[in-house]
């Protein structure tokens, strides 16, 4: 199994240090991203819902 490393909590690197790219299915239902608003909330993409970090993590299936 190849070694992986996460940098800045967002980028997964392989054993050579190359970024492991993940494709985003924009045709799948639900949100696939979020933009920070500066007050601790996020605008979900593409729905536009304003949510807190816990809800953002739940929708994106990531840790808060």
In short:
By secondary structure, the chain is α+β, with helices and mostly antiparallel strands.
Percent of residues in helices comes to: 10-25%
Based on DSSP secondary structure assignment, what is the total number of beta strands?
A: 5
The protein's oligomeric status is: single chain
Summarize the biggest pleated sheet. 3 strands, antiparallel
Low-confidence parts: none
Radius of gyration (Å): 14 Å
Written account of the structure:
With 64 residues, the chain is of the alpha+beta class. The chain has a domain at 30-64. The protein has one helix and five strands. The protein has one helix at 53-60; strands at 5-7, 11-13, 33-36, 41-45, 50-52. A three-stranded antiparallel beta sheet has the order 3-4-5. The longest helix is centred in the last third of the chain and has 8 residues, at 53-60. It is globular and about 40 Å long. The protein starts with a strand and ends with a helix. The mean pLDDT is 82.
């Amino acid at each position: 199994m190849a070694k992986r490393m996460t940098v800045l909590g967002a980028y997964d690197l392989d054993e050579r240090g190359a970024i492991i790219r993940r494709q985003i299915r924009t045709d799948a239902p639900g949100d696939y991203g979020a933009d920070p608003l500066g007050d601790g909330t996020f605008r979900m993409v593409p729905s536009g819902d304003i949510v807190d970090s816990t809800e953002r993590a739940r929708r994106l299936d990531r840790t808060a």
